[in-house]
Design brief:
mainly alpha
């Protein structure tokens, strides 16, 4: 469960080594590049992998942003200035109202999808995995720290995201494909 270890690693950086919210970004980049290298060798060819990973990255982003909105205190709905959020950019839009945050989420998701589709494959995969890791971590923080669902909820989310990645981003190889690879 790579994503479960990702969550543990980012928390180690954030809490034990006082990296704060930047821990997720550091871990995202630190894993985005090696994952892009590894996946680039076995992934679907051409733009199909970018399209599929783009959708998974956007879904992960929207889950994180939805959890952010759902996790706001009751006071937020009457006084948006009471927003609860560690990400400075997201907080900026939250304090201007939920509608402002929703607009930001839509533009952010669209921008991410277009960026992943437009970049060359290696850069595209790196960006996709960066956002997968960072937004998985963000959503997991809501599950673990705010809603107190425990590591089981984080691992369940990691499992669902992993299944989506393997199912959607990789084409099953036929037995003959393995013989061709060895040549």
């Amino acid at each position: 469960m790579t994503l479960g270890h990702v969550y543990a690693g980012t928390n180690w950086l954030a809490i034990r080594w006082h990296g704060g919210i930047l821990a997720s970004a550091i871990y995202g980049l630190g894993l985005g590049i090696p994952l892009a290298i590894a996946v680039g060798r076995v992934a679907l060819a051409g733009t199909e992998i970018k399209r599929r990973l783009g959708w998974i990255a956007v879904a992960t982003l929207l889950i994180d942003l939805s959890f952010t909105l759902l996790g706001q205190p009751n006071s937020y709905w009457l006084r948006p200035g009471t927003a609860y959020e560690g990400n400075v950019m997201s907080r900026y839009f939250l304090v201007h109202g939920w509608w402002s945050f929703a607009g930001y989420a839509i533009v952010y998701a669209l921008g991410l999808f277009v960026t992943i589709r437009a970049l060359p494959q290696f850069a595209s995969l790196t960006v996709a995995f960066y956002f997968l890791v960072a937004d998985f971590d963000g959503a997991s923080n809501w599950l673990f720290f705010v809603w107190r669902q425990g590591m089981e909820a984080v691992l369940a989310y990691a499992y669902l995201l992993s299944v989506a990645l393997v199912t959607l981003a990789f084409e099953p190889q036929q037995p003959d494909d393995h013989a061709k690879e060895r040549r």
